[in-house]
C-alpha cells in the first residue's frame, strides 16, 4: 500500500505548509498530497477556496494578489507557493498535486518542465489529480506522459470509465463511497485505486483487504504501522 501524507503530515503540523511537508519527509513517507490554487498566475498551496476558515485572511484566494498573501498566515505559517514546496521535497518522494482551484492547468504546465529539469523529480513522481476532470484532460493533452488521477466524491453510473477516458494512472475515491465494483472496474482498466482520507487503522486494513492500492492519511506513520502490522 502506498501512503500519501494528506496535505503533508497534517495531523502533526499545519496542513499544506512547508512545516507539514517537512514533517512528512521526517517520517520518511513515500508520497505527499497537496492542493493548489491560482493566484496571479502562480500556483499557491492551500486547501479552501476561501481564506477565512484556515488563515488570517478573508475572501476568495483566487482574488488575492501575491503581495496580499504575504501578509496572511496559517496558524503562524506562511502560505507557500507550489514551487517552494517542490523545492523543499526535491524528489525525495512522490507528490500528488491536486488541482483544486480555477485555472490551475496553465500555471502547472508553465512550471512543469522546470520542475523536472531544475528539481530532482522524475515525471513518474508527479501525480496530478482533480475533481475537475476536464482539467486533467487538458493537462494530459499537453503532457501525454504525465500521471493523472480523477478524484471521485461518489460512485458514477459508469464506475471507473473516467480512468480510461483520461488514460489515468490512478483513481482517487472518497472513503465514504468506496465499492468493490468500483475498485474492480478501476483495476480492470489498469488503474491504481487510492482512497481519501483514512486515519483509522481498521479502515486502512479493511481497504487493503478489498484490494485498495493506497490511502491518503493525516497520520502517515500510523497508516504505515497499520498495514505493516497486518502484513506480519
Ligand atoms: O486528494 C485527496 C483529497 O485531498 C481530496 O479531498 O478536500 O481533502 O482535498 P480534499
Ligand atoms: Mg486534496
Automatic annotation (TrEMBL):
InterPro entries linked to this entry: GP_PDE_dom, PLC-like_Pdiesterase_TIM-brl
**Which Gene Ontology terms describe the biological processes this protein takes part in?**
lipid metabolic process
Q: Where are the bilayer-spanning segments?
A: none
Annotated GP-PDE domain residues: 1-227
Which protein are we looking at? Answer: Glycerophosphodiester phosphodiesterase
> Which GO MF term does the entry hold, naming one?
phosphoric diester hydrolase activity
The lineage, from the top, is:
Bacteria, Pseudomonadati, Pseudomonadota, Gammaproteobacteria, Alteromonadales
Looking up Pfam families in the UniProt record yields: GDPD (PF03009)
Q: Which PANTHER family match?
A: GLYCEROPHOSPHODIESTER PHOSPHODIESTERASE, CYTOPLASMIC, GLYCEROPHOSPHORYL DIESTER PHOSPHODIESTERASE
Amino acid at each position: 500500500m502506498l501512503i500519501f501524507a494528506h496535505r503533508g503530515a497534517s495531523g502533526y503540523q499545519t496542513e499544506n505548509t512547508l512545516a507539514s511537508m517537512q514533517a512528512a519527509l521526517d517520517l520518511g513517507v513515500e508520497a505527499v498530497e497537496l492542493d493548489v490554487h491560482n493566484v496571479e498566475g502562480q500556483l499557491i498551496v492551500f486547501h479552501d477556496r476561501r481564506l477565512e476558515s484556515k488563515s488570517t485572511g478573508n475572501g476568495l484566494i483566487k482574488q488575492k494578489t501575491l503581495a496580499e498573501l504575504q501578509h496572511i498566515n496559517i496558524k503562524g505559517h506562511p502560505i507557500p507557493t507550489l514551487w517552494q514546496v517542490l523545492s523543499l521535497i526535491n524528489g525525495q518522494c512522490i507528490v500528488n498535486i491536486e488541482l483544486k482551484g480555477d485555472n490551475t492547468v496553465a500555471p502547472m504546465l508553465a512550471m512543469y518542465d522546470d520542475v523536472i529539469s531544475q528539481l530532482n523529480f522524475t515525471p513518474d513522481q508527479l501525480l496530478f489529480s482533480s475533481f475537475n476532470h476536464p482539467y486533467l484532460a487538458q493537462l494530459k493533452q499537453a503532457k501525454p506522459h504525465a500521471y493523472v488521477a480523477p478524484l471521485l466524491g461518489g460512485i458514477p453510473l459508469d464506475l471507473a470509465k473516467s480512468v480510461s477516458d483520461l488514460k489515468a494512472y490512478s483513481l482517487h475515491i472518497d472513503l465514504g463511497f468506496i465499492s468493490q465494483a468500483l475498485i474492480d472496474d478501476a483495476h480492470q482498466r489498469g488503474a491504481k485505486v487510492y482512497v481519501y482520507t483514512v486515519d483509522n487503522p481498521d479502515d486502512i486494513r479493511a481497504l487493503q483487504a478489498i484490494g485498495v492500492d493506497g490511502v491518503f492519511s493525516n497520520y502517515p506513520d500510523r497508516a504505515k504501522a497499520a498495514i505493516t502490522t497486518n502484513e506480519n
